[in-house]
Design brief:
The protein is built from 14 helices and 17 strands. With 361 residues, it is α/β, with parallel strands linked by helices. The protein has 2 domains: 135 residues, Arc Repressor Mutant, subunit A, CATH 1.10.10.10; 213 residues, Dna Topoisomerase Vi A Subunit, Chain: A, domain 2, CATH 3.40.1360.10. The strands form 6 sheets. The chain has a 6-stranded mixed beta sheet, sandwiched between helices. A 3-stranded antiparallel beta sheet has the order 9-8-11, with no helix packed on it. Helix 1 runs antiparallel to helix 2. The radius of gyration is 23 Å and the shape is globular.
């Protein structure tokens, strides 16, 4: 069964369920898994976050439920149409497509984009389909370079022949076909500026690897692309971030999954990912103490939250890093490595770290 056929089948099953309830004189309802920390579990064996069994019922004939019920059904109807005509809309465009007035009323289906975004996520967990399978895309936000040739929508693209910009990673990477891969590993980084440094230095060619970046937290498209390269083609994933709570959290999301998307961990999480970013020891080794940026209250609060996460709580090396960070009372960015030389990160930092297996899992 193709991805298109699977999506159509699940949407049809949802529609038939509701129709049968109506024909039987029942109050039609949607059974929606709860997407909050209280219903998210850490699977120690798989090393990923998973959504639990708790759910809530949303009934059509319920004054407090009906608005969200209708919003979810409108998204389902739109997704059905998009899949049939094989076209896609952005999250913003879905909002406008749903911003219409219900016949015979002065009530709009949605008033703001958060409502349509929430309805899309509800449909994901109800139908067990990803947003991308529903033909809804987010903005592109990432780049890749390396000796990989892919096929995308019939076009053959060589990631090593795209100049300074690299390949712009789309929102939906599910249907990308990998035609040729000549790389030993992948370096993922949280900042586009660092990617540009590595790309200009041709790190992907010199180290026979792939370099991928986003701008901050990785998009779903990037996470799915990384997972596919790791699981389908056995490429190790090394995550390069700053020495701060936010960089550590970016690694956490890539490796274990996220609380809000625990229902998609099987398609997004990369349990084998390794942390190659700055550590407390690196700061001392490379004499970066003077480059420290003092923490704000929000940084310290985030650090305390990270320490208590189940997936970090019993890991000595991570607790050690949290302790060093708290003692430092500040963060150090990867960009600070430029104080050691323009291409120090490319010529010394990364080669040494990988050669010495100086990473954290």
């Amino acid at each position: 069964m193709t991805i298109k056929q699977e999506s159509q089948k699940k949407l049809k099953e949802l529609g038939e369920k509701l129709l049968n309830e109506i024909k039987s004189g029942e109050n039609p309802y949607l059974d929606i898994p709860i997407r909050s920390l209280s219903n998210v579990n850490f699977n120690v064996e798989k090393q990923v976050l998973e959504i639990g069994d708790s759910s809530s019922k949303r009934f059509f004939f319920n004054i407090s439920h009906i608005r969200k019920f209708v919003q979810t059904m409108e998204v389902a109807a739109l997704a059905k149409e998009l899949i049939e005509v094989d076209k896609h809309l952005s999250l913003r465009q879905v909002f406008y497509a749903l911003r219409k007035t219900l016949p015979g009323t002065n009530i709009d289906v949605v008033d703001e984009q958060k409502e349509s975004n929430d309805a899309i996520e509800d449909l994901e967990v109800i139908a067990k389909l990803t947003r991308e399978q529903l033909h809804v895309n987010a903005s592109k936000n990432g780049a890749a370079a390396g000796k990989i040739i892919i096929e995308d929508k019939g076009d053959r693209i060589n990631w090593g022949k795209l100049g300074s910009g690299g390949w712009a990673i789309p929102s939906n990477t599910e249907n990308i076909k990998f035609k040729k891969i000549d790389a030993k590993f992948i370096i993922y980084m949280e900042k586009a500026a660092m990617w540009e440094r590595l790309n200009e230095d041709k790190v992907w060619d010199k180290m026979n690897c792939v370099i991928i970046a986003s701008q901050g937290q990785a998009t779903r498209g990037i996470r799915r692309l990384l997972q596919r390269l790791n699981q389908e083609h056995n490429l190790p994933i090394y995550v390069l971030t700053d020495f701060d709570p936010w960089g550590f959290y970016i690694y956490s999301v890539l490796k274990f999954g996220s609380i809000s998307l625990a229902h998609l961990s099987d398609k997004l999480a990369i349990p084998e990912a390794k942390f190659l970013g700055l550590t407390g020891e690196d700061i001392k080794k490379y004499k970066l103490e003077k480059q420290k940026i003092k923490f704000k209250k929000v940084d310290l609060k985030r650090l305390e939250q990270l320490k208590k996460y189940d997936w970090f709580e019993n890991k000595k090396e991570w607790q050690k890093q949290f302790k060093l960070m708290k003692e430092a009372k500040g963060k150090v960015e990867l960009d600070a490595l430029v104080t050691r030389g323009i291409s120090f990160v490319s010529e010394t930092y990364l080669p040494e770290k990988i050669k010495n297996k100086d990473w954290i899992e």
